[in-house]
From TrEMBL:
<feature type="transmembrane region" description="Helical">
    <location>
        <begin position="470"/>
        <end position="494"/>
    </location>
</feature>
<dbReference type="InterPro" id="IPR005828">
    <property type="entry name" value="MFS_sugar_transport-like"/>
</dbReference>
<feature type="transmembrane region" description="Helical">
    <location>
        <begin position="107"/>
        <end position="127"/>
    </location>
</feature>
<feature type="transmembrane region" description="Helical">
    <location>
        <begin position="292"/>
        <end position="311"/>
    </location>
</feature>
<keyword id="KW-1133">Transmembrane helix</keyword>
<protein>
    <submittedName>
        <fullName>Solute carrier family 2 facilitated glucose</fullName>
    </submittedName>
</protein>
<feature type="transmembrane region" description="Helical">
    <location>
        <begin position="323"/>
        <end position="343"/>
    </location>
</feature>
<keyword id="KW-0812">Transmembrane</keyword>
<dbReference type="GO" id="GO:0016020">
    <property type="term" value="C:membrane"/>
</dbReference>
<feature type="transmembrane region" description="Helical">
    <location>
        <begin position="621"/>
        <end position="642"/>
    </location>
</feature>
<dbReference type="GO" id="GO:0015149">
    <property type="term" value="F:hexose transmembrane transporter activity"/>
</dbReference>
<feature type="domain" description="Major facilitator superfamily (MFS) profile">
    <location>
        <begin position="6"/>
        <end position="464"/>
    </location>
</feature>
<feature type="transmembrane region" description="Helical">
    <location>
        <begin position="81"/>
        <end position="101"/>
    </location>
</feature>
<dbReference type="Pfam" id="PF00083">
    <property type="entry name" value="Sugar_tr"/>
</dbReference>
<dbReference type="InterPro" id="IPR005829">
    <property type="entry name" value="Sugar_transporter_CS"/>
</dbReference>
<feature type="transmembrane region" description="Helical">
    <location>
        <begin position="589"/>
        <end position="609"/>
    </location>
</feature>
<dbReference type="InterPro" id="IPR045263">
    <property type="entry name" value="GLUT"/>
</dbReference>
């Protein structure tokens, strides 16, 4: 019964997820033609094509967030049975869209199938984990990801030019997604419900025993029930679990944070951009049109093959190793892919372009293989193993919802990024380029702001065919990447060029720097710290990742630095002139306003100095962050209203001034909180030995986030006034 339960669940739920993810890849040009023929006022066919994936992912996120409630109230199996109906309805709606000449049917169908995929993603993994025996739980859990990859492969095969990839038949291929869902609708009721759910949630011991014996006849049912009873008794000493407790309970905060970060890492590795847009990527790389579809099929088949290999590795190698080393291969393959695609574009029409196109395809295969072994199957399993029965469904729902939102970011941004002349791989390598530094940071970042138009003109005058916006962003990006390299070098330099163990010089320096305090007391404290350090093995850089007492401080340090940069501060510093121009402010006023922004930044940072000791670190991070969010929201509204009035009118000018005011509010809130506090917190969380390494890593993460913001803003800005909502 276990085998049939796993097969039916994977076929009716997991397979359908992969099928619906991959079905829009090869027919991309058909979808663009169809939607643009009937929707005339859209920005571009690429936008309409991206929207097909975007609505799928948005409702996927909604489905994921809803899945926890459904799984707890209806049960794991019954939720999947009900969810099959959404898959069938979505396929039926999409199938006749070309015949009915209605793009609306396509979008509505994708909305419904997206909701289905969101529920399936969380509940199918949860169900498979709970019905599987402990010794093969990893392998059974990996079957979910395996079925997803098989669904992707089947979708690719059915949309070959020789089959359904025609102007009229591609919707039929989408509609075929109803077939496995219909089969599952009739067969899944024959499978038992999760024994854990029956006993823990419904308190039905007899049904739980019966289901357990059907699924796992080799293990002792009394031991299983005894373990569940102990878990329930421990839970009785706590108030009944509610969804909100996933955020408020201390014992759940770190597991849910890790679960969400792993899911974000999975999606921001760019896998679904590769799955959905691999044909576009290969076309960009210069591969011949008649070879692309077969290469895409090969990608799907290779994905299935390597996922099969990962099933046996999961229990032998362990979860952590399968997250770490394949991620390194992902980074290298993306970097190499960026180089080959860039060179292929330089040699278009020449013999070298064909070779580079083939090499690009090889690195896509390497990327897919690394993902299928590590980041593909591992995240869902880790989430299931980190939580006990009560919060497990809520944790799945939240982490899967975060996964879908990250997926949305990747899918909807790729076509726009690609049209701007930036290969997706360049953006994706940002996420795995772990370098950073500080230096002459404020000056070097701000100096590129005001002369933006002159820089763009200089670039286009001297580099033929260059995209001005991309090259302007690249000016900031190369600065940040080089700064990144400096940041990771800083730890080694600080340890080797400073810190020499010279007591006399130390006393002399301390007296110069701090005449009011006793140098003897200072030296005693330092000696005590050194004596403690001698009892431990000599600190090495790698211990920042392996030492248990350093993991949590290091994670918090990196998260605070990410928050600082993803608040968008360096987009404001580097592109405030562009923002104000978008808001309708006059050219003559912009330069003075930008100088005012810089001056106000200095003033508010001075104001923050006495506040930090009085108010404390935590309030200075929390409340200014609320002001940051509100000011960005209001800034969005004022820019939208400014765009509705003709340039030069009184109303447009007033809204432009209002936008400038809220940029000042934003700068002030940042300068008081997220500006000065992160560096202080990092220095206070670590003892002397690991401090330089912790600084290097956290600052590297900060620069990584900085690079993401700086290079993405010109492309996000294409989306119009709503771009600030991203921050």
């Amino acid at each position: 019964m276990l085998i049939s339960t796993v097969v039916i669940t994977c076929f009716g739920s997991s397979f359908v997820i992969g099928y619906n993810l991959g079905i829009m890849n090869l027919p991309g040009d058909r979808v663009k033609n169809f939607t643009s023929n009937y929707i005339k006022d859209a920005p571009s066919p690429a936008f309409l094509y991206a929207l097909v994936s975007a609505v799928f992912v948005v409702t996927g996120a909604i489905g994921s967030f809803s899945s926890g409630v459904m799984a707890e109230s209806l049960g794991r199996r019954n939720t999947l049975i009900m969810n099959n109906a959404f898959s069938i309805i979505g396929a039926i709606l999409t199938g006749p869209c070309v015949v009915a000449q209605s793009p609306a049917l396509l979008y509505i169908g994708r909305i419904v199938t997206g909701f289905n995929a969101g529920i399936s993603m969380g509940v199918a993994s949860l169900y498979l984990t709970e019905v599987s025996p402990r010794d093969i739980r990893g392998a059974v859990g990996a079957c979910h990801q395996l079925a997803v990859t098989i669904g992707i492969l089947v979708a690719y095969i059915l949309t070959l030019d020789q089959l359904f990839n025609t102007e009229t038949l591609w919707p039929l291929a989408v509609g075929l997604g109803a077939v496995p869902a219909t089969i599952s609708l009739f067969l899944l009721p024959l499978c038992p419900e999760s024994p854990r759910f029956l006993f823990t949630n419904k308190e039905k011991e007899y049904e739980a025993r019966k289901a357990f014996v059907k699924l796992n006849s080799k293990e002792n049912v009394d031991i299983f029930i005894g373990e569940l009873r102990e878990e329930m008794e421990a839970a009785q000493h706590q108030p009944k679990f509610r969804f909100s407790q996933i955020f408020t309970r201390r014992d759940l905060r770190m597991p849910i944070l890790l679960a969400c970060l792993i899911q974000i890492q999975q999606q921001l590795s760019g896998i679904n951009a590769v799955i959905t847009y691999s044909s576009t990527m290969l076309k960009t790389a210069g591969l011949a049109d008649d070879k692309i579809q077969y290469c895409v099929i090969g990608i799907g088949a290779f994905n299935v093959l390597v996922t099969l290999i990962s099933v046996s590795l999961l229990e032998r190698v362990g979860r952590r190793q399968l997250l770490l080393w394949p991620a390194v291969v992902l980074a290298i393959s993306l970097l190499a892919l960026t180089i080959t695609v860039t060179l292929a574009n330089q040699f278009q029409g020449e013999s070298g372009a064909k070779i580079l196109g083939i090499v690009s395809a090889v690195f896509i295969f390497v990327y897919i293989g690394a993902f299928a072994i590590g980041l593909g199957p591992v995240p869902a399993m880790i989430v299931s193993e980190m939580f006990r029965q009560e919060p497990r469904a809520a944790a799945y729902a939240l982490s899967q919802g975060i996964q879908w939102l990250s997926n949305l970011l990747v899918l909807i941004s790729y076509p726009s990024i690609d049209n701007s002349g930036i290969t997706s791989t360049l953006i994706l390598t940002v996420f795995i380029t772990c370098f950073g530094s500080s230096g002459l940071y404020g000056y070097a970042t701000g100096i590129m702001n005001l002369p933006g138009n002159n820089i763009k003109k200089f670039i286009t005058d001297n580099i033929k065919g260059a995209d001005a916006e991309f090259m302007y962003a690249l000016v900031s990006a190369v600065y940040v990447v080089a700064g990144a390299i400096g940041s990771f070098s800083s730890s080694v330099m600080a340890e080797n060029l400073g810190r020499k163990g010279k007591e006399y010089e130390a006393r002399k320096a301390f007296a110069k720097l701090n005449s009011k305090e006793d140098p003897d007391q200072f030296m005693e404290e330092v000696k005590e710290e050194m004596a403690e350090a001698e009892k431990r093995t000599k600190f090495k850089f790698g211990q920042i990742f392996t030492s248990k007492d350093l993991r949590m401080p290091m994670l918090l340090a990196c998260l605070i630095q990410i928050q600082q940069q993803l608040s968008g501060i360096n987009a404001v510093i580097a592109y405030s002139s562009t923002m104000l121009k978008t808001a309708g402010l006059g050219e003559g006023d912009i330069q003075y306003c930008v100088v005012g922004v810089g001056a106000f930044n200095v003033v508010m940072t001075i104001v923050s100095l006495p506040l930090i000791e009085r108010a404390g670190r935590r309030p200075m991070l929390l409340w200014p962050a609320v002001v940051l969010a509100l000011s960005l929201l209001i800034l969005t509204i004022t820019v939208v209203l400014a765009k509705k009035h003709d340039e030069g009118t009184g109303a447009a000018k007033n809204y432009g001034i209002a936008s400038a005011v809220f940029i000042f509010v934003y700068i002030g809130a940042f300068a008081v909180g997220l500006g000065p506090v992160p560096a202080m917190i990092v220095s206070e969380m670590f003892r002397q030995e690991p401090r330089a390494a912790a600084y290097a890593i956290s600052q590297g993460v900060q620069w990584l986030s900085n690079l993401l913001v700086l290079i993405s803003y010109p492309n996000i800005d294409v989306s119009g006034p709503f771009c600030n909502l991203a921050y």
